[in-house]
Design goal:
single chain, binds uridine-5'-diphosphate, binds magnesium ion, 8 helices, kinase, Rossmann fold
Length: about 220
């Protein structure tokens, strides 16, 4: 029998909302808007990985760089630990609306992208309460990513990497979305429309879920 592991954070006190959708679906854009409105901490798994990649002395730098360029998933231990550390630091440091006595609320953007990460995070770090799933067509996502690529400096905003990311998304991330759908945790939002229009839907979903006024 495996030892009974309880998560680091109690989901009664710490609210985790996963924000998923294909590359370029609008996750980061919408998270930035939601964060101020509902006192969230926004953690982008991709940003944490890029930060770790650039950290002097990181033993994972090369591994992360290769995975990001190839559009594959970094071994889950690395990403889960980075998220857990960032959550602990935020809970420790932050006070105010929704953040007293070990409470907190997180938008975790671009994670979990693969079933193993989802199960590990839910069991060992914090059980997620909800998943916001942004959907649009590959054509729209490709267009947005190429636009972003003009200024993002990201090594994966080029056609070759984007194609690989689309594949990884279909093969590895869609099963995660189906998993949470079967648990009734997914709110699906079509993100083809304008940023403002998509935000209205995302905001409505969040305010309903947190039972707080629309912001
Ligand atoms: N990545 C990963 N594990 C994660 C999240 C991201 O390995 O849990 C890697 C993966 O290679 C991915 C890249 O980081 O293609 C960029 O992720 P990001 O979320 O920044 O891309 P976005 O979805 O915003 O386009
Ligand atoms: Mg992003």
């Amino acid at each position: 029998m495996p030892a009974d592991i309880s998560p680091v954070f109690d989901s009664e006190k710490v609210t985790v909302i996963y924000v998923l959708g294909g590359p370029g679906a609008g996750k980061g854009t919408q998270c930035s808007k939601l964060v101020g409105a509902y006192s969230f901490c926004h953690l982008s798994a991709g940003d944490l990985l890029r930060e770790e990649q650039n950290r002097e002395g990181s033993q994972y730098g090369e591994l992360i760089r290769t995975c990001i360029r190839e559009g594959t998933i970094v071994p889950m231990e690395v990403t889960v630990k980075l998220l857990e550390n960032a959550m602990s630091a935020e809970i420790e440091a932050r006070t105010g609306d929704g953040w007293s006595n070990g409470r907190g609320r997180f938008l975790i953007d671009g994670f979990p992208r693969k079933m193993d990460q989802a199960l590990k995070f839910d069991e060992e770090v914090c059980l997620a309460s909800m998943v916001i799933f942004f959907t649009t067509t590959e054509e729209v996502m490709l267009h947005r990513l190429l636009e972003r690529g003009k200024t993002s400096g990201r090594e994966d905003d080029n056609v070759e990497s984007i194609r690989k990311r689309f594949r990884t998304y279909e093969e590895q991330t869609m099963p995660v979305i189906r998993h949470y759908s079967s648990h009734g945790k997914v709110v699906e939002i079509d993100s083809t429309a304008s940023v403002e229009q998509v935000y209205r839907e995302a905001s409505a979903a969040v305010s309903k879920f947190l039972r707080v006024p629309l912001a």
